[in-house]
Write a structure and sequence with these properties.
The complex is a heterodimer of chains A (1057) and B (224).
Chain A (H helix, E strand, L loop, with lengths): L1 E10 L5 E10 L28 E4 L1 H6 L1 H4 L7 E4 H10 L2 H12 L5 E4 L17 H19 L6 E5 L2 H8 L5 E5 H8 L4 H19 L12 H10 L2 E8 L7 E6 L13 E4 H5 L7 E6 L6 E4 L16 E5 L1 E9 L4 E5 L3 H7 L5 E6 L7 E4 L9 E9 L8 E10 L3 H11 L9 H5 L14 H6 L1 E2 L6 E5 L8 E7 L5 E9 L1 H4 L5 H9 L3 E2 L3 E3 L4 H7 L7 E12 L5 E18 H8 L14 H32 L5 H10 L4 H4 L6 H24 L5 E4 L9 H9 L9 H10 L6 H14 L4 E4 L28 H19 L9 H35 L10 E10 L2 E6 L4 E6 L6 E5 L5 E10 L3 E6 L2 E6 L3 E9 L7 E8 L17 H27 L3 H5 L3 E2 L3 H9 L7 H16 L1
Helix pairs in contact in A: 12-27, 19-22, 20-30, 20-31, 22-26, 23-25, 25-31
Chain B lengths: L24 E5 L7 E7 L2 E8 L19 E6 L13 E2 L7 E8 L4 H16 L8 E8 L2 E4 L3 H4 L4 E8 L4 E7 L5 H38 L1
Parallel strand pairs in B: 4-6
Antiparallel strand pairs in B: 1-2, 2-3, 3-6, 4-5, 7-8, 7-9, 9-10
The chains are: A alpha+beta (1057), B alpha+beta (224).
């Protein structure tokens, strides 16, 4: 090691320039990271492959401005210099830097980081008077030359730079390294990579224009970072994440408050940012710094419903109480992602064209402002959805600048819309690559997969000793959990077992499959398809605990006291099981009810043997039910919330196939299985938390904020119920009591509102959170994690690994491999949480998409199906929000149109538009016209017509229009809830089923039009029902609007029957 | 602007060292003729000068003298020009109940001042011929992302992480001083102390080399 010195000029904390001398050590041995290395470098991490045509060394400027091009996976053999890496770190934001880091870490990208500044022969000190850019370029060039020589000339090395002087200067040196510009490089080495060329041109054009532009300022400048930091510390400024109101995107935005960030206790609500001027170029999701305006400039939030965008509505009377209002003074962190946009219609483009090169495109997401991009392909891209990235937003520009990245497809087509939904939620699900699939074990007819004998001997063998069975929905193919229960010799103790698919045996940590699963984090379920987390050979076959075959499993076995059912001992470990029965829910329930049913596994057997087997199974099921009841009662004592049972049946309807509609009645066996899984999750959480107090992955559900319950309490009061929200126990009890015998919907709606008030359950690392925050509010458990579905959730895979490490720790005193540190785990937990949220959004949006598609082809004025019953669940100044149980929709119903006319109701309930006034009260809204006054109360049933409002740039939306203030049933007497017989109910189910299949046909019709490549994106159809059940039954707290309403509809039916 | 990255993914620190590598240590003994012992030590860019007078009679009031032990008087100071941003001169008494005068001065401060002073004082004491049981070697260690870093430089010290100063008698392995101001999880303390001790042992070899070389030079001179 040789010591040199580096002189730096830094800004001190007081703002003065300080000359600092730093040591700088250089060495001869710096790993080069190439497979061709002749000098035995210690290349222990990622290595550049040797079989590429050349290596490319990008200059500082290229990495800084054209990183996106380097992100193309086609570009291989990229050597990133430390010089470039550090410059990016210092000059671009953290986000950009993190992207670069992710690129380097990703094993699928062929690029390495070379620490050239620490290499003795690469590093050159800065000359006197040399500009920093020149010095950097010189350093990069030296690195490229060293690289070439280090590899003994085996591989040509190309340096790409944007600095034309450097090109001429270094090309003349003839050192074996080619120095060319980026454009030339792309043209000569990647002539076929059209996407990269387009991207390059797009970025270059944007850069050029940015330089040439000098216009007057539209926005005030952002304050420098030091001032912001000082301001936040002193409490003058507030720091938070900007979220734009989706319905009033141009005017209203809120800064969500980061509680710990400020000492200003007087503020406990969000801060309102009113108008684009005050928002000062912040985009939805950015971390911003806000200064509060003086109190007399505070405004209230708008309570009126708004129909379209850009409609000016600043009437004082539509606003709520004034709330803290502020303006953005600086941005700490941009959180820009890729946006899907649509080009405006051609006429508009031409009228816009002061400069026809620049076009304002409209993002799909309402919350994102229009983006100005430079392109010559505006005409070609008409009616297409395009991915755009934001580059900058100068204070001189009304709109942000961006550039085109990729074309998605034609707007309005199903496949494009689905891809849009995925992209807008940042979900990337390319088909599994060949390299990933090569890692998979083989299991074919000719070459069946076999167990490893060493594995067999190291595992506890439960194949002969335990009666293992699974209970799943009909037709389930990925069984990740099985159960067993038996009385231990002596009869004093019971043994309950939960056996989970051993995914971690097949998915080794750090393998490509593992990395892919980690980046996906979960299996994505959309309305018509699913994207698996693991390749099908694992998820549907080798990991799946199918009946009658030997499988690896991770087991938790409890010994329970036979009388009190208290847990005496627990055993965790890897096992070998063979599931004897693959039951489905209905069958299991029938068995429990003592009905005569045929168990497929026993159909071969005859006589006493069969009876004996049957008795064994029945005995097991009964014991299981008894245990589950006990567990449930235990949790109920703690205050577990009953919100989940509601959704279960609901989600099933989403399947849009007939079998999915069957379990209308919540079967007790559903709860039994769920309870056992919760129990297993809980005990595993205890185990890993005890073994690794600082680095275990748990899941907690923070108690909700009391003020979120206000609307629930108000609504309940309107119906005369009082809701106690002090604790989960009190809430559960009071919800239990708030039942209107006339209208079961009321209770459902209240429960739904309660659910909306809750925060989401989240994964976290135990080291990142104080112990009192481990509590799971919804399940009323002090520790909880996810363990039981490793096939479709990455968190479970992590937990499996932790559990294995914990077992090893117990046996050998130390885990074999170092575990992920608290920090890494917390990052990972954060990532999984984000992906789960994205998955939920995508699922919801895809459901909405299908609802729109369903109604799009129907004429709302004629078609009976477009008229439905709706329930009012919230009141606004110019209308109310309503649910349509039949279709699971939720939407706004306007009582006042743009001309100021209001809805008037005539004698037999028909509605018309007439001049009049509206009066709003907390629990009701009345219209007053010449014909009389009519009042709509909360929980009133009305009839609405559903129509589709097409939108060019955004998703189509459904419109609800009031036709009558009477429940819809009055219009259609045959579906009147009162006095329907069983047969009618069945008819209704069949009708639904037809509807569903109709819809499915409709989808199929669309699908057949798709090209083959589009089809490749889809990996498997028909989401598995059971996994949905599982997800929901442990209170994942989705946006429940859809599911719950669906369920309520079923409830009405069952109740009336 | 992204913050400083104290330890890169490839395992390099800001100045190009690996986690367990020390800074370059250079030292000379007997730099002043009039003092009984003196030494100059550079640990990276931290430069320290130590001067030892004595053993001699206790100056000032006699009441300070201990009947069975020597009193060590130690003064530490920093040159006004030692840091990039200048500081007032200040003195402090490191070892109370003192006897021999040890004056240490930091000429340039770049992290690990305390340990550089201890090391320089050790050399000066050796130079003064005061019998000692062992070298006293000191070194700092910090903790970044579960990795202990040996011998922190100024940028690393001010980076906000933990810094632990440890003085070791390398032959016996006894710890003479252990000082840490920031918070650290108990689980990590052992690894951190282990790293600091390894660093101290490395330093003691360097110091030993310096002493031996100095002795050779001196003996060559005296032979003539």
């Amino acid at each position: 090691m040789i010591k040199t010195e580096k002189v730096l000029h830094l800004n001190s904390s007081k703002g003065r320039k300080v000359r600092v001398v730093r040591e700088h050590y250089v060495r001869e041995q710096v790993p080069c990271g190439s497979a061709l290395c002749q000098a035995d470098c210690h290349n222990d991490s990622k290595v550049l492959s040797g079989d590429v045509t050349h290596y490319v060394v990008p200059d500082v400027g290229v990495v800084r401005d054209f990183l996106e091009i380097l992100e193309f996976r086609e570009l291989q053999g990229i050597v990133l210099t430390q010089t470039a890496y550090q410059t990016v770190q210092h000059t671009r934001g953290r986000r950009h830097y993190n992207r670069l880091r992710a690129l380097l870490k990703d094993p699928r990208h062929d690029c390495v980081l070379f620490a050239n500044e620490f290499q003795r022969y690469c590093y050159c000190p800065r000359d006197k008077g040399e500009s920093q850019d020149k010095w950097h370029t010189r350093n990069v060039y030296n690195a490229a030359v060293w690289y070439y020589n280090h590899l003994a000339g085996l591989q040509p090395v190309v340096m790409i730079t944007e600095d034309s002087e450097a090109i001429s200067q270094f090309s003349a040196l003839n050192s074996g390294v080619y120095v060319i510009s980026t454009q030339e490089y792309l043209l000569s080495f990647w002539p076929d990579l059209q996407a990269a060329h387009d991207l390059y041109n797009s970025i270059a054009q944007t850069l050029q224009e940015r330089e040439s532009e000098v216009v007057e300022k539209v926005y005030t400048e952002h304050l420098p970072a030091e001032v912001l930091e000082a301001g936040i510390k002193s409490g003058r400024y507030i720091q938070g994440i900007l979220s734009v109101n989706k319905h009033r995107a141009q005017h209203e935005a809120f800064v969500r408050y980061e509680a710990s960030a400020s000492k200003n206790t007087e503020l406990n609500s969000d801060v309102l940012i009113n108008g684009a001027k005050h928002r000062n170029r912040a985009v939805h999701g950015d971390a911003v710094v806000v200064e509060l305006l003086p109190r007399n400039e505070w405004k209230g939030r708008t309570m009126a419903l708004t129909e379209g965008q850009g409609e000016e509505q600043t009437l004082e009377d539509t606003q709520s109480q004034p709330m803290p209002t502020g303006r953005v003074v600086g941005i700490l962190q941009r959180n820009w992602r890729d946006y899907v946009v649509t080009f405006p219609p051609l006429e508009e483009v031409q009228s816009q064209s002061r400069n026809s090169q620049k076009i304002l495109v409209i993002p799909w997401d309402y919350r994102i402002p229009k983006i100005r991009i430079s392109t010559q392909q505006a005409e070609a891209l008409q009616d297409q959805r395009v991915i755009v990235r934001l580059d900058s937003w100068e204070s001189t520009s009304v709109y942000p600048n961006g550039h085109c990245v990729r074309v998605l497809g034609k707007a309005g087509e199903l496949e494009t819309e689905i891809q849009t939904i995925l992209l807008e939620n940042c979900i990337h699900v390319p088909p599994f690559s060949d390299a990933q699939l090569r890692e998979m074990p083989i299991n074919t007819q000719e070459n069946p997969w076999q167990m490893d004998s060493s594995e067999v001997s190291s595992r506890r063998d439960l194949r002969d000793t335990h009666l293992v069975f699974s209970i799943d929905p009909k037709g389930c193919e990925d069984v990740d959990d099985t159960l067993s229960v038996r009385t231990l010799p002596g009869g004093k103790r019971l043994e309950l077992g939960v056996h989970i698919a051993d995914v971690t045996y097949f998915v080794r940590e750090g393998s490509l499959t593992d990395l892919e699963a980690r980046s996906r984090a979960t299996t994505y379920y959309l309305a018509d398809r699913r994207y698996d987390m693991l390749p099908a050979v694992l998820s549907a076959d080798l990991c799946s605990l199918l009946g009658g075959v030997d499988r690896y499993a991770m087991s938790v076995l409890w010994e329970l006291d036979a009388e009190t059912l208290d847990v005496c001992t627990v055993w965790y470990g890897r096992t070998l099981i063979r599931s004897s029965y693959q039951l489905h829910y209905e069958l299991a329930q029938s068995l429990l009810n003592g009905e005569e049913v045929e168990v497929p596994e026993l159909s071969q057997l005859k006589g006493p043997q069969r009876d004996q087997k049957m008795a064994e199974l029945l005995q097991a099921l009964e014991t299981l039910t008894r245990v589950a009841r006990h567990l449930r009662a235990q949790r109920d004592k703690g205050g577990a919330l009953e919100l989940e049972g509601v959704e279960v049946r609901a989600q099933l309807d989403e399947e849009k196939n007939i079998t999915a509609l069957v379990p209308k009645q919540p079967l007790e066996v559903h709860e039994t299985v769920a309870e056992c899984m919760i129990h297993a999750n809980h005990w595993v959480a205890r185990k890993i938390q005890e073994s690794f107090p600082h680095q275990a992955l748990l899941r907690h559900h923070p108690p909700p904020k009391q003020e979120f319950f206000n609307s629930l309490i108000d609504c309940a009061k309107a119906r005369g119920f009082s809701i106690n929200t002090r604790s989960n126990r009190a809430l559960a009890d009071s919800l239990e009591q708030a039942v209107d015998p006339q209208d079961p919907l009321v209770n459902k709606l209240l429960r739904m509102m309660a659910t909306q008030a809750m925060s989401n359950a989240l994964y976290f690392s135990t080291g990142a959170c104080p112990e009192e925050q481990y509590y799971h509010y919804g399940l009323a458990l002090d520790r909880y994690t996810h363990f039981t579905s490793p096939i479709r959730r990455y968190a479970d895979v992590l937990v499996h690994r932790l559990l294995m490490a914990a077992i090893q720790l117990e046996k050998e005193g130390s885990p074999s491999k170092p575990l992920a540190s608290n920090k890494e785990l917390e990052e990972l937990a954060h990532h999984i949480n984000n992906k789960n949220r994205a998955a939920q959004h995508a699922q919801k949006q895809s459901t909405e998409l299908f609802q729109c598609l369903y109604f799009r082809d129907k004429d709302s004025n004629i078609d009976e199906r477009c008229v439905a019953d709706a329930v009012i669940y919230a009141v606004r100044t110019n209308g109310f929000l309503a649910f349509v149980p039949q279709y699971g929709l939720r939407g706004a119903v306007y009582l006042k149109d743009r001309e100021g006319q209001v809805v008037s109701v005539d004698g037999d309930g028909k509605c018309e538009w007439k001049a009049g006034t509206l009066q709003r009260y907390p629990d009701r809204i009345s219209t007053c016209t010449s014909t009389g006054t009519h009042t709509f109360y909360l929980f009133d049933h009305v009839t609405v017509r559903i129509s589709v409002q097409p939108s060019r740039c955004h998703t189509d939306t459904l419109c609800l229009e009031l036709i009558s203030n009477k429940p819809h049933c009055a219009v259609q007497p045959e579906s009147q809830p009162a006095g329907r017989g069983r047969s009618e109910l069945v008819q209704e189910v069949v009708r639904w089923a037809e509807e569903a299949s109709l819809q499915a046909e409709e989808e199929r019709g669309k699908k057949s039009k798709l090209s083959r490549e589009e089809r490749q994106f889809r990996q498997s159809k028909t989401p598995n029902l059971y996994v949905l059940l599982q997800e929901i039954s442990e209170l994942a707290l989705l946006d429940l609007s859809v599911c719950q309403i669906r369920n309520t509809e079923e409830q009405t039916c069952t109740a009336s029957s | 602007m992204a913050g400083l990255e104290l330890l890169s993914d490839q395992g390099y620190r800001l100045d190009g060292r690996k986690a367990s590598e020390l800074r370059k240590v250079q030292a000379r003994m007997s730099v002043f003729a009039q003092a009984d012992g003196s030494a100059y030590l550079e640990q990276g860019n931290t430069k320290a000068l130590a001067v030892v007078y004595g053993p001699h009679e206790v100056r000032g009031s006699r009441s300070k003298s201990l009947h069975d032990r020597a009193v060590i008087n130690c003064q530490y100071s920093m040159a006004t020009f030692s840091t990039a941003e200048r500081k007032r001169r200040h003195t402090e008494t490191l070892y109370p109940r003192s006897q021999i005068d040890i004056y240490v001065k930091i000429l340039q401060a770049d992290g690990g001042n305390y340990s550089a002073c201890v090391n320089a004082a050790t050399l000066a004491l050796v130079d003064a011929g005061i019998p000692m049981r062992d070298y006293v070697c000191a070194c700092t260690a910090g903790f970044v992302e579960d990795t202990p870093l040996a011998d922190l430089c100024h940028a690393e010290e001010s980076g906000g992480g933990t810094s632990l100063a440890l003085a070791l008698l390398p032959r016996s392995g006894n710890i003479a001083l252990l000082q840490m101001d920031a918070r650290l999880h108990q689980d990590h303390l052992d690894t951190l102390i282990e790293a600091a001790m390894t660093a101290c042992k490395g330093l003691s070899e360097v110091l030993d080399g310096v002493v031996r070389q100095h002795l050779e030079e001196v003996s060559v001179l005296t032979r003539d």
